[in-house]
């Protein structure tokens, strides 16, 4: 009887999920009437705990130890004018000069929030943001690039200083994905062989949440973010879930899981509508060091290369 009534409601409320995924009538009534989902404790506590109601990130696949108490945390927007400047400003130009040499490259690594940094790599460990590409996520991107190239995979890496680019346009933090979208589209336009796009970030959770010890070796934990605010997002979700499953087989505990976000939790698209093989990967947190980050880059390159040379059909 419940299923019949729910189907009748669904005929009028088209936003409800497909019939095979429909909740019970009790669950549906609670959700519609008082915005409570019996299977999600956040909806019970959202009005009691400040800020919890704003965080509805979906855990598509939970890694070991992942639950709603240790969901990813976004660092607060930095003050761009206070960021430590890079010591090598010519690197961005080098990226542009190498465009013509990238015709055999199929992986594109970039950073929508290039300033996200790691305390152990900073001169001032009180900071968590920096334009120094030896201390921020650009260092991780370069390490992953080298590890993938060791596996025979051609990689293009954008080291664009996003904070400088935003400032030059009088844009703000919330327009960073609009800027990185241009970066991705330019790369696609200059090299039609690019098939995989990896946006590397880092989390703001502390080290106890973002570090794994596997066979006496320390790793910065990874997690995958999938936007759902575009058509056919399930293909990128399936890709992320596949890599999560494969890396967990070889390095159990390294992945915190796959998280799905809508517009209320962030951008909601993350440039993933441009391709079916787009990844947003968070490498570790603010407290992870370069050894841990490098170990994780090596692990990801190991698993990604197996997928690349096997199932991807490249």
UniProtKB/TrEMBL annotation:
<feature type="compositionally biased region" description="Basic and acidic residues">
    <location>
        <begin position="91"/>
        <end position="100"/>
    </location>
</feature>
<dbReference type="Pfam" id="PF07454">
    <property type="entry name" value="SpoIIP"/>
</dbReference>
<protein>
    <submittedName>
        <fullName>Stage II sporulation protein P</fullName>
    </submittedName>
</protein>
<dbReference type="InterPro" id="IPR010897">
    <property type="entry name" value="Spore_II_P"/>
</dbReference>
<feature type="region of interest" description="Disordered">
    <location>
        <begin position="69"/>
        <end position="104"/>
    </location>
</feature>
